[in-house]
Amino acid sequence: MKFFRIGNIPTSWFQGVFVLKVLSGFLLYLIYTYYYTDRSTADIWKYYDDGMVMYSALREHPVDYFKMLFGVMNDTSHFQPYYDEMNHWYRPYGSSIANDTHTIIRFNAFVRLFSLGHYNVHSVIANFLGLVGLTGILHFLKQMAPSKEKWFFAGIFLMPGMMFWASGVLKEPLLFFGLGLFLYAVIRLENDDFSIGKLSIICLSLFFLFTVKSYVLIAIIPGLLAWQLSIRIAKIRPAFVFAIVYGLLVVAVIAVGEFMPSNNPLQRLVQKQNAFYQLAEGGTYVKTNASDTLYIDAKDYDFLEFSENRAKVVLKAEVKAVYWKAAKQETAPSQSLVEGRELAVLLDYGKTGSTIETPRLEPTLWSVLKASPIALTNATFRPFPWEISSPFMALSGLENILIVVLLILAIVGAYGHTPLPSSATWFLALSFALVILILTGLVTPVLGAIVRYKVPALPFLVCALLALIDTEWLERNFQSFVRRFLRQRSK
């Protein structure tokens, strides 16, 4: 495909990285099948299993299946039995503009049409979509330093977090598919004439961005606006244009909070942080009869005695519970569950072991600005080596070390070998990465979640740093080191 022919990068590199992504997806499958065995909370299984519930309607009620698949007239009580059987169609603690679980569930329900129920078929397809998206990002980012396209290839595809989290039946491959296609269509529109095909690509990409992780779309819009203005107004330096656009954005946020308090973006940020703290505290969802699901707060965790397979729980004391859709709502009406009662467990979110203390936000600009440096540090460099408590965190720790090395080389390059970039694309990459990292650090007090939420920023951050590094100097020194090593071995 012409799409995968970029400069001097061999096509075999894309083939090879696709194989690596499929193998990483299979590794995820093994980990979540034989190590983390609770399918209801395992990242790769929970949306897959919900997709199978949706697919189950096809045999006897095909109209129901297609209505749920396309989101057409599927919000009536008729569909409630399907949604009650799913574990993640509803998100009690969500605050997204769109419920980002629906798209991944629908993706699995659609792929099931030809996967014959084999999970790894879903994984291969998700990996190809992710490959397409990351290639689109490479098309866009290589504009800031075309001579470094091979380095950018490595920075986009081979970072440990990217290779791992963007290689399973998760939201990340769909997110990158949408983001990459969007950026690819933008540069095609910039370089070529308008066409229906390009408009179709933009509409498809916007659908995935808006329904999978809408905050990524919101985060990149100011940068794209500044990027466009920088191209159109060549006499003004991109740094100045970006400063003006983001300055106006801050003014707009203050104005919205002042004149439309119900839509205050800063209040939404506070709500998102509170939701993460509540999720970190844990909680248990139990079924009391054939149709009623209740939520027991984490503060009553000590009063619950779970069976060996954690499928049932016996109450050791009287506890309060609320209807599951009202979970985490302070004013929700509660009911008492008597001591000794045995209940079926649907979901159990134990207290998160990787919770870190982050500055508690208030809906004011000063509160957000004051917390941003700590947020940026947490999202970029944590977990620290002594905080690593799982293989997933170990991958993130390795990635953080690579980022520190790149940062040091970039600082050296900026003050020595490499002229500072003046490309609007570089400022877009850096600004977008910083926005994602700061937002992640502000709202996420859980290290296990940070390593996932910062993934969209990684290709942009790494390529922005690579643009500052004298890669030719690195290549010369590496080749010299290899020659010396081979000579020593020959002796």
Write down the overall mean pLDDT.
85
> What value does the Rg take, in angstroms?
24 Å
Shape: globular
Strand-residue proportion? 5-15%
User: Looking across the biggest beta sheet, what order are the strands in?
Assistant: 3-4-7-1-2-5-6
Percent in helix? 55-70%
Spans where pLDDT lies below 50 across 5 or more residues:
93-98
Distance between the termini: 47 Å
Number of strands: 7
| Count of discrete structural domains | 3
Q: Figure out the total of helices.
A: 20
> From N to C, what is the helix and strand string?
HHHHHHHHHHHHHHEEEEEEEHHHHHH
Main β sheet profile = 7 strands, antiparallel
Query: Based on helices, strands and strand pairing, what is the structural class?
Result: alpha+beta
Question: Can you characterise this structure?
Answer:
With 491 residues, the protein is an alpha+beta fold. It has 3 domains: 1-212, no CATH class; 253-281 and 356-491, no CATH class; 283-349, no CATH class. Helices cover 62% and strands 7% of the residues. The protein contains 20 helices and 7 strands. Strands 3-4-7-1-2-5-6 form a 7-stranded antiparallel sheet. A hairpin with a 5-residue loop joins strand 3 (304-306) and strand 4. Helix 8 (149-157) runs antiparallel to helix 19 and helix 12 packs antiparallel against helix 17 (424-443). The two termini are 47 Å apart.
